[in-house]
Amino acid sequence: MCSSAFAEKSYKLDLPDTIFIELNPNQYNKYARNRLRILVDGDGRKIYQNILSKYKNWYYGKISSSNDDNYFNAKLRITGDWKDHINVNFTSLYIRINDGSISGIRDFKLLLPHTRNNSNDILWNSLMNYYGLKTLKSKIVKVSLNKKIYRAIFFEMPRKEYLEENNIRETVLLEFDERLMVENYHKDHVSSKDDVRELLANFNNQTGIGLDFAFGLKVINKNFVDSSIANKISSDAIFLLTAQNWEDYITEYDFYQKSNFIYANHGLNLNNRVLYYTPFNQNFNEVYREGNVTLDADGKIKKCDTSNFSKEEIQHIENFIKKYEFNFRVNDRMKCLIVHLNKIYLNSKKDYPINNINISPIINEKKQRIINQIIKKIELNSSKNNDNLNITPIYNFILTLLYKSLPYECNYNTENNEIDFCKQISTEKYSNYLIGKVKPIKYRNLKIYGINLGTIDYKNNFEILNVNNKKHNLNNPLTYLFNLDNVKKENLQSFIFENDQARLILYGTFRKEFNFHFLNESYLKNNMSFNSEILEERFNNHLITGCVTFYKTNFQGGKISSKDMKCEDSVNIMNSNGTINNIEVFNSGFDAIDADFSNILFEKIKIVNSKNDCLDLSKGSYDINVISTYNCGDKGLSAGEKSKVVINNFEINKYNIGIASKDGSDVKINIANISNRIENKNNMCLAAYRKKINYIGGTIEVEKLKCDSEVYVSSFSEDLYKACVLRSKNNKKLFCDRNNFVDNYSSINVKTRN
Known about the structure:
Structural class: alpha/beta
Helix content: 10-25%
Number of helices: 13
Distance between the termini: 57 Å
Mean pLDDT: 88
Shape: globular
Largest sheet: 23 strands, parallel
Low-confidence stretches: 1-10, 187-192
Strand content: 25-35%
């Protein structure tokens, strides 16, 4: 009997059984009145079936997962597009916690169970997770709203915390902008959603803009689009996802499409899909959100004869149920689903390439005509040095886009199918367009929210290196790719960075006989000193932070050396595993070595001269036999986001903070010699604290410590509290409770100190 390679990985749902919500009488009464207004909302002739945005006001209260005094401040509102999310007593709710988290989650929904076919959706979500998808956490919970009890489905929202929990670097999450459908449902007394779709389809047919994916896309994780480079990544994703061949960019799609087509077809509708984009391999991944999972409708598998199950199938069912520990009974029909889905998986495509850089986006002729018009308008304005700022537009449709990395807003005239004008806009305004934070315009009594075309001059900017060469000169502002599995003879490889924008990604198996050297000479080409360059962005437009990045690499030993790198990370190891015999990093402009989402044994590490952290470890398991660092501008070791770190012998010479453990990380060290502190800095040997609001603090245990500074254990997360206050300063109804920033977890235990 199968099973997916992913099924053996540990999975912990860790959601509470009960959610307690308390609103003061004023806030609760407003919520209750609003609930009733939604139920009767109409135009005098009929009751509308959709919930308009004007009813989705925020209410302020407290929330907890235990019935005690440990409550977080939160805001909540009614959620859902249609009135199945409302009844006389309760509604589906959207929750955002301000000064804490529940199971590491700050944004989630409490959905009335029938809106997701009760436990069917929980089962389906777990099955998607079992077969490798990065799913949102969900569970049937009891809700106490001002002591009134009801059942709901706790459903995590796709945010930064979801990506981090699933070992995904924070990137853009995209969804169809469903407001076009919901807000216009009753306009002109339209009787059905199909009529609205027809109105929008006419525009799509005229322009070709929405023919291939959907009428509009928006970014879900709003905090991501906080810079020009993040806007560029988001715009690249939108351009690819609105191409004719957009499905070619989705990895591990065959099983998802086949299984959802049978049982959760609603989830394949464009307006119900969520995808995240991985720029450094030009992939998209599906995030299952809602599918109206049906197990007994016509055309779906009906209850089968469970007595005919083989021993392997029975064992498979038992293993699956044990893994997810459901709080509902798995009935025979569900067992039939579990068995059938395994058969679908076995017959699905599993061999996907690590990247899709060889796929080119295909743009339909009508859309290309509009793009050509836009480029012509922009170039004409540029040559005349005229941004059309004096034009008072009569908007029909707003098209937003990036061209030559600059944001523009264009007016599309529906009468003549032409672009009237384009004007450059600010990065902030463009960010607001990306996240849907712009008021709609009126067009024939419809609300139109603007359509983003993405990066209309998109280029993937990748280059594949020839593995048969011994020496590689990276002399262009590109991301270079190196497939380790294709190396047959040349075990000694040298990579010379001659362009300060060049980046390198290596993937495959790093064999024990490999000896790779990485050297930056870009500052020499530009007649600069090593210290004269300034890092403008943490990552490039492929979301790469390292000059050298090892991605999904299986290390079998070998040696790595790096010198004079100026990126956020000199060497970044991401989503990798195995053993590295020796790694040496000299003269880093920022962090020397950064490892994320990995399981690595380092036999020997040597780091000399790092202007920030010498070793930064996140969300993984790391064992180090011997490590020596000299002149770390900030930390000798920084461990964060649930890292498990074990070190035998650690020598730190010249430091600000010797060893820091934070955000659920545990660091265990046998011998630590920490000396020669940098003057006029914090100067701590060991520091354990909490940095992120969705984590607890960190711990450090040292058998033998020699150090010339103090030990710091956090008792209160001052920086987190200040950030919460700053975030809430414009909302007098949103509070930050100091008690929620007390750090009771962080600890340091030193058995012997000299």
